[in-house]
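TICKET: design request
STATUS: open
ATTACHED STRUCTURE:
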């Protein structure tokens, strides 16, 4: 499977960041896989932001839940991250990744649970 992030590299404060992950050589509806968004702010560790599973169910980090929305377009085999009300603290490289397969109900909220990653896309929040 291959994942590729796309979206604007520069976003103004208070605006909404929107990124798309295009998946190839694999389907986002294949059972038991999870599709997540992860970022790494400067000087910090990897931060799991949220995920969408093969059924379309979504999961969010409690710290970002109020600003985050993840959706998918199965016809294009893509899933999308929207992060609202961004600030310079949201500046980071953003990665999409696939986790699983997990045959039992698990909480896939750790970057370690994701085994295929896109190359990442740098997002800078600045006026």
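STATUS: resolved
RESOLUTION: sequence designed for all positions
ATTACHED SEQUENCE:
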């Amino acid at each position: 499977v291959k994942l590729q992030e796309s979206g604007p590299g520069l976003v103004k404060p208070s605006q909404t960041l929107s990124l798309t992950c295009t998946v190839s050589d694999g389907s986002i509806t294949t059972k038991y896989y999870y599709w997540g968004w992860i970022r790494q702010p400067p000087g910090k560790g990897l931060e799991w932001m949220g995920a969408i599973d093969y059924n379309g169910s979504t999961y969010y980090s409690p710290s970002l839940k109020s600003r985050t929305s993840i959706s998918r377009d199965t016809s294009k085999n893509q899933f999308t991250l929207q992060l609202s009300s961004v600030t310079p603290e949201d500046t980071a490289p953003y990665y999409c990744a696939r986790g699983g397969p997990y045959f039992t109900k698990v909480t896939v909220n750790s970057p370690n649970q994701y085994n295929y990653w896109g190359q990442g896309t740098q997002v800078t929040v600045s006026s």
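CLOSING REMARK: The two ends are 36 Å apart (CA to CA). The CA atoms of residues 35 and 98 lie 5 Å apart.
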